[in-house]
Specification:
Strand order of the largest sheet: 4-3-2-1-8
Helix content: 40-55%
Radius of gyration: 26 Å
Number of helices: 22
Structural class: alpha+beta
Number of strands: 18
CATH topology of the largest domain: Rossmann fold
Oligomer: single chain
Distance between the termini: 64 Å
CATH superfamily of the largest domain: P-loop containing nucleotide triphosphate hydrolases
Largest sheet: 5 strands, antiparallel
Number of domains: 4
């Protein structure tokens, strides 16, 4: 076991520990971290890292940015002042923390007991969802194949739930589990990418000898590393060859599941290639009994194009009762408090902390951790007391830091920026204009800020509400001139904050003034009704003296 700072990299069990608490980390990010930790203190070029982790496979270099973002989030590392992973622009990365080799029993690194209760304690407030997964597993054991979709926004805890469920099965040796990760920029180019990764895990597992024997007998094209080129060679004009390969694999997986239930976990299925989706469809529709489960996570599909193939697959399987969907919602305030207690490893929390973090995160577990790490980085939360009795405390009341209500951690902002950058410039401008109106924004205000036609702008807002999970249409207002305008809300205030800050001060000011002027036009003769709003927009534009109205 290799340790650095308060972390331990358990290479035997393929997991990461922090102060004795196991952290959720998908296989590929773990492999990236392991390679860096195995080579501390030296430059690891992009090419070296890609060649080591994706041999004989073309992977776009920007995939590394996604994994580094996830690792920094888990490690609580600041890219501006790195304690662990240093980015060397246009060259690669360097692991800068001292690394020590220790046994698992040294310095308190003994893993927690592998009981079901201990494993379940790694997540909070997902009792009903965990019970539904176990209910599906009970059905699976009777020979009925299962397809289970776990859906939720980014950071809501899909991977944590699935990992906790699979760990419970692993600890009781109740099933064989294999993971495959869908990655944006890869899966659209390489057929069966997550399937091949899962098969590699199967062949390397304790059941690997049986898996290799069954694949060799029933689906030899999938057995060796060369299977990737063979599968990729199956072109659209040769559907029979591809269908035969899929059928062979389905039969082999069913045979493997005869000895022990088999669970295939596919993460981020929204990035999956069509061939992987076709395999899931085939596995769901076969009539032979099989103790085989596909457990797939994905983000809400309104975040993607209307013709996304996963939409059609999911809807068809749900309609035919061939699949089950488990949708994760934000955590309630009590669960946020439990999560903070777990992360800080103390029952008694500083005053105001749970309420503040809940308001800022709105119950998204990833946001909870990001806000907590931001408070620690800013030295607002500090560890005080004797070494054996040290506890996290507030350096001062949170009310003494009013700027916190307008701040977002760099890591969280970067994650949100990545989602926004996938949109067109026109769509980004619509969202930026919407952020000028706080969490809820009307279409007429967006049109005024951007000097666009109101009807066309409302259509653009509707399209964004259909595509994005963090924007929703919330209703319709009647304006003083008798016209109507729809209004929308951001699911998280943090998205509004990032969108607001990414605009230059000059651009924001011009847009605020346009909205204020439009408010005055709409309420001509009744300006007193919106005096506060008009004054707020002029003040935000840095021109409070230009408003004829003052807020009461």
């Amino acid at each position: 076991m290799k340790s650095f700072d308060c972390f331990a990299l358990d290479t035997a069990n393929q997991c990461l520990w922090r102060n004795g608490v196991q952290l959720a980390l998908a296989p590929k990010p773990f492999a990236v971290l392991r390679f860096l930790v195995d080579n501390p203190g030296r430059l690891i070029t992009h090419d070296e890292l890609l060649d080591a982790l994706w041999p004989e496979t073309y992977v776009q270099p920007q995939v590394l940015r996604t994994y580094m973002l996830e690792l920094r989030k888990v490690l609580g590392d600041d890219p501006g002042q790195p304690r662990f992973i240093q980015t060397l622009p246009k060259r690669g990365y360097c692991f800068v923390a001292p690394v020590a080799e220790r046994s698992s029993i040294e310095h308190g690194w003994t893993a927690p007991a592998s009981s079901k209760d201990a494993r379940a304690a790694k997540i909070v407030d997902r009792v009903d969802e965990m019970a539904r997964l176990h209910a599906q597993f009970e059905i699976l054991q009777s020979g009925q194949r299962r397809i289970v979709f776990v859906c939720g926004e980014a950071g809501i805890g899909k991977t944590a739930l699935v990992d906790a469920f699979c760990r419970q099965l692993d600890s009781s040796l109740a099933a064989t589990v294999a993971h495959g990760q869908c990655v944006q920029g890869i899966c659209g180019n390489e057929e069966f990418y997550p399937v091949i990764e899962a098969l590699g895990q199967l062949c390397a597992s304790p059941q690997g000898e049986a898996a290799c024997r069954i694949l060799s007998k029933m689906a030899p094209a999938w057995l060796t590393h060369g299977r990737k080129s063979e599968v990729a060679a199956a072109s659209p004009d040769r559907p029979a060859a591809q269908q035969r390969l899929v059928g062979d694999l389905c039969a082999a997986l069913e045979e493997l599941a005869a000895a022990q239930p088999l669970i295939l976990v596919f993460e981020d299925l929204h990035w999956a290639d069509d061939s992987t989706l076709n395999l899931i469809s085939a596995l769901a529709r076969r009539h032979a009994p099989a103790r085989l489960m596909v457990l797939a996570t994905f983000r809400p599909l309104n975040n993607f194009a209307a013709a996304h193939p996963l939409k059609a697959l999911k809807q068809d399987l749900l309609m035919r009762r061939l699949s089950t969907e488990i949708a994760l919602v934000p955590l309630p305030k009590a669960a946020v408090r439990d999560l903070l207690s777990r992360e800080l490893n103390q029952e008694d929390l500083p005053p105001e902390l749970a309420g503040f973090v809940y308001r800022r995160s709105e119950g998204n577990p990833l946001f909870v951790i990001a806000v907590l790490e931001h408070l620690i980085t800013q030295r607002i939360l500090v560890r005080r007391g004797a070494e054996n009795a040290a506890a996290w405390q507030q350096a001062a009341p949170l009310s003494d830091f009013p700027e916190l209500d307008d701040s977002v951690s760099d890591q969280l902002a970067h994650m949100i920026e990545l989602e926004i950058d996938r949109l067109s410039l026109e769509q980004q401008h619509v969202l930026e204009a919407g952020s000028l109106m706080q969490v809820a924004f009307p279409a007429w205000a967006v049109a005024a800020a951007l000097e666009l036609d109101a009807a066309e702008t409302e259509e653009a807002c509707d399209e964004l509400a259909r595509r994005l999970y963090f924007v929703e249409r919330a209703g319709q207002d009647e304006l003083p001139d008798g016209s109507c305008s729809a209004f929308y809300v951001f699911a998280h205030g943090l998205y509004r904050e990032v969108l607001y800050r990414r605009q230059s001060a000059t651009r924001r000011a011009k847009r605020h003034i346009r909205i204020a002027d439009r408010l005055g036009q709409l309420f001509a003769g009744r300006e007193a009704c919106v005096a506060r709003e008009i004054a707020n927009h002029y003040e935000a534009a840095g021109q409070p003296q230009h408003s004829r109205f003052q807020a009461n």
